[in-house]
Structure formats: C-alpha cells, structure tokens
Amino acid sequence: MIQYVTLFALILAFLLLLGVIFALQRVAKTRPDGGVVGESGFTLEGYSYALIFLAVVAAVGICYVLVRDTPWAGHIMEWLNIVVRLMHITFGIAWIGASFYFVFLENALNRTDNVREEPGR
C-alpha cells in the first residue's frame, strides 16, 4: 500500500512541476537578448532549470518505485551505476579541463602594461 501512495505522490509532484514550468513559460515575456523575464521582472532561467531538475528527479523516483522488488530492479540499478560512473568521469574531466583553461587565461594576462614605477626602486 505504501508503494502506491509513494507512486501517487511522485506522479503528482511530477505533474505539478511540469505544470509550473509550462505556466511560467506562458506568462513570461522574452527579453531582447533572448532571456525570459516574468511579470514581476525576475528572471525565470534559474527557476525553470531547477524545476526541470526536480521533474527529472521525480521521473527517476517514479521509475524506481515501479521496478522496486521486481526482477528488473537489479538490471536497472546496474545500468544506473554505469551511468553515474560515466557522468562522474565526464564531469571530472570537464572540471580539470576548465581548471587548466582558467589557469591559461590568467597566465596570458599582460600585467606589465601601465604599471607605475615605485619611487626608491
């Protein structure tokens, strides 16, 4: 019984989040630079990304509740393990690459132009 209540709550949260995303997109106006501004002037990009993330989490939760205690649970968990490991490797490589890139940008700055001479040196 608790599985059905959890499944119902997750489906309700998923539908609610999708409804909020679509409602925000209908209410929003487009800025000249392509961004989206709500009626009160706040930007919707951060909120929509957070809602999309929460909708994905709700969808994964729904899938987990549906396959829990079934023969497919082991297969799903193994595939999820592989996906999480590959994402971890990919994000690690991106993090290290971004670190090298920003160090390169910082070292490429010319810090000798327009530097005033200190008296007494």
Structurally, how many domains make up the residues?
Answer: 2
Strand content: under 5%
Q: Using only CA atoms, what is the Rg?
A: 24 Å
User: What's the pLDDT, averaged over the residues?
Assistant: 76
Give the helix tally: 3
**How much helix, percentage-wise, in residues?**
55-70%
How many angstroms separate the termini?
A: 82 Å
H-E order: HEEHH
Morphology call: elongated
Structural class comes to: mainly alpha
Keywords: Membrane, Transmembrane, Transmembrane helix
Transmembrane segments: 47-67, 79-104
Domain Urate oxidase N-terminal: 75-117
InterPro entries: Urate_ox_N
Short summary:
The chain is mainly alpha-helical and 121 residues long.
Supply the key terms.
121 residues, elongated, two-stranded antiparallel ribbon, 2 strands
Verbal overview:
The chain is mainly alpha-helical. It has 2 domains: 69 residues; 40 residues. It contains 3 helices and 2 strands; from the N terminus they run H-E-E-H-H. Strands 1-2 form a two-stranded antiparallel sheet. A hairpin with a 5-residue loop joins strand 1 and strand 2. Helix 1 runs antiparallel to helix 2. The longest helix is centred in the last third of the chain and has 35 residues. It is elongated, with a radius of gyration of 24 Å. The protein starts with a helix and ends in a 14-residue tail after the last helix. The relative contact order is 0.08. The model has no long low-confidence stretch (mean pLDDT 76).
